[in-house]
Amino acid sequence: MPTVIASSLRDKRLPTPCLLLDETRLLANCARVSAHVRRQGLCLRPHLKTVKNAELARHCMASPHGPATVSTLAEADYFFRHGITDLCYAVGMVPQKLDRVLALRRQGADLSVVLDAAESVHLLDAALASLRTNDDSPLPVLLEIDCDGHRSGLAPEGSELPAAAEQLRRSTGLCLRGVLTHAGGAYDAPHTDRCATLAQQEGHAVVLAARRLREAGHACPVVSAGSTPTVLLGRYPAGVTEVRAGVYPFMDLTMAGLGVCTLDDIALSVLTTVLGRRRSDGSLVVDAGWTALSADRGLTRQWPFQGYGLVCREDGTLLPGLRVSETNQEHGIISCGPVAPAQAMPGPAACPDLPVGTRLRILPNHACATAACHAGYVLLRDGRPADFLTRCRGW
Amino acid sequence: MPTVIASSLRDKRLPTPCLLLDETRLLANCARVSAHVRRQGLCLRPHLKTVKNAELARHCMASPHGPATVSTLAEADYFFRHGITDLCYAVGMVPQKLDRVLALRRQGADLSVVLDAAESVHLLDAALASLRTNDDSPLPVLLEIDCDGHRSGLAPEGSELPAAAEQLRRSTGLCLRGVLTHAGGAYDAPHTDRCATLAQQEGHAVVLAARRLREAGHACPVVSAGSTPTVLLGRYPAGVTEVRAGVYPFMDLTMAGLGVCTLDDIALSVLTTVLGRRRSDGSLVVDAGWTALSADRGLTRQWPFQGYGLVCREDGTLLPGLRVSETNQEHGIISCGPVAPAQAMPGPAACPDLPVGTRLRILPNHACATAACHAGYVLLRDGRPADFLTRCRGW
Fold this sequence. Notes:
2 copies of one chain form a homodimer. The first copy, chain A, is of the alpha/beta class.
C-alpha cells in the first residue's frame, strides 16, 4: 500500500487524486449479474482484467477457485497465487509465452489458452515439442470465433474452423476444449435493443461453431460468449455454456450510456481537489489529469458531453451539467455544458464557484482504463474509507 | 524490476508488450536541448514528469542536485531520495498537501510551490500557521502567469497579480520566489512558426509580470517559462531566467508532427508481438492495447492518420503507412491507410502478411502517457537490451 494512503486511512483524510470503490454498489452489481446469469442456467466466468484484485475477484466468482478469465499472464500468476485455479487466458497465444503458461500448469493451474488459426496451432505445437515433458497434460485450447468482425476469430461458418480443429486433433501438446467469442462491437451499439440483438448474434455464432465441430467428431464441451452489455441486456440461445463479463462490478459512464446501468450503480470514482479556476472561462482546475482518469474518451460519438468524466460532490451526489472537459498530465479542467443523456436533471449556466481545496469525485468513462491508472482502490464501506486493495499490474 | 523482464534481460528475449528506450537517441535529444538552452544564456529546469527515473534525470539536469521540475509529490519524494534537492512542484498547491512539502523541506529539499490566486496564498498561509515551526524557513512560491488562456494562472497585466504578491509580502510562512508560465497552447499549434510566436508570447507574459512585481518593490529572482516545442522552436525575450521542458528526452509523434523532431529522434517505443489477423479487413492483431500504448490519440485534428501510434520493424525501421488504428485493453489493431505527414515514404496498399509471432515496435503519440503505462524502461544500448530502469509512480 502506498505510504501516503496508509497514513490517510488512519486519519480518514485521503490524498488526491485517489481511486474510490463503493463497496455497497460493487456488491449489488456483482449480485445482479450472478443472479441474472444463474437464472439463464449459465456458468459465469468473470473477466478479472477489470478488478485485478483477488478480494474483489471473490465477489465475482462462483467459487474461490474460479472459473475466471484473465487478460495477461501477470494476472494468471497473481490470481493463481491467490487460489484461483480455473483460468482462461483470453488473449491470442503465441509460442514466446508458452514457458510461463506451462510453469503455471505444472504448479496446478487449469489454465487454457485461445487461438484463432491453424497456423497458430501449428506454431504452438512445434514450440511445445521442445518445451513439454511426458508429465505435461495437453494444453487446453479454445478456438476464438468472430461474431461481429470486430477483432480476432475464425468465421463460424468458414473452412478455417474445421482446419484449425483438425490441426488440434493431430497435435500431441494441445487439445480442443471449446469455442469462445466476444461481441466487442457491443460497445459501439447506440442503444439497448442493439445490445440484445448482439447477444443473440454472439450466441448463435459460437453455438454454430460448436455444432460444426461436434459434427466433425470433436468434443467441444465449452461454448463461451459474453461482454457486460450483451450479458445484461440480452439472452443467449441454448447451447452457450458459459458467459464472460468484466466491467460489471464497477460499471461506468459507457455502461450507463448503453443503458446497462444507471449513474447510481457506478461503484468507481476518482477523488480530486479543486486547485483554482481558469480565468478565461471560469472553469475549475482540479488535480486529476489523464494520469488519474485515463485519456479514455468513452463513446464520444454517442455521448460527447461526458468529456473525461462526470462530476460529483465529495459525497457522491451528481453535479449535473459539469464534466471534465480537458485533461493534462496532472490537471483536469471541469466545465459546464449540455448535459449527457444519462443525467436526469438540467445543468447550471456556469461552473459553480467552488473554493480552492473543495473535494469532488469524477465518474469514469471506462472503469477498466481509469482503474489501470492506480496502484489500488480505497474501499468505501458505508461511505467511509475502510481498506486499501492493491491491483495486479504489468504483463 | 518485474521478474519476467529480469530473466529476459539475461537471455535477451524480451517479453511483450514492453517499453524500449534507445539510449543513443535519448542522449542526443538531451544534448541538443542542453546546448540550445545554454546558447541562449538560460538555465534549464527539466520537467521530470516524463522520465520519472533518477538515472534518466541525470542526463537532463545541469548538476546531480538539479534544478528540476516535478508534477507530483511522489516524484518530489523519489527524486529527493536520489540526491536532487532543487525542485519546483509545478502543480497548484493546496493546504492538504502542505505536510508532505514541509517534511521534504525539513530534510533539506529546496522545494518551491506554485500558486495563482490571492485566495490560495491566504489559505496556505492560514494552514501554515498551525503546521510550521520557528525552524522552518518561509516556503518559496512561484506565482503562475497565464500566457495563453490554456489552463491556470494570473493575467500578467491584471490587478490580481499585485494583490497576490501583496498577500505573500504580508505572509510569515510564504515568500515570493518568482513567476512561472507554461504555453500549454503550443501543443495545439499546427506548425513550427506558431510555436516560435508562442515562445515570444510566453516570454513576454512572464517578463511583464516580473517587471510589474519589481516595480511594486518585490524581489522576483526567478522568471520561468517553457515547454519542449516553445523551447526548441522559439527564442525567449531577455528577462526570462530559466526554461522548463519535459518530453524532449524521449520525443514522440506529437513533437514530430509539430516539427520539433524527426521520427528518427524518437527514443521511446513499445515492443509488441503479432497475435494474428482480423479476417474482415486483413488488419494485424498485436498484443499492445491501451494498457501498453495509452489511449492518448495525440493531436488527432492535425494528424488523424497516426492512430494510437506508428509501426516499425523490431529493429526500429519504420513501416510506412501502418498505424495502430484501434486499441482494446490488451489488443491493438494495425491497419494500413494514408501516411501521416511526418512519414516521408508512401505506404503499401494493404497490411503486409506478417506471421504470428513477428515482433514490431510502436512509436508513441505522447511519450509521457505511453511511459506512464509501464513499470519501467528496457534500456537499449547499441540496439541491445542493457538495463531496466524503474519509474516512480503514483502521487
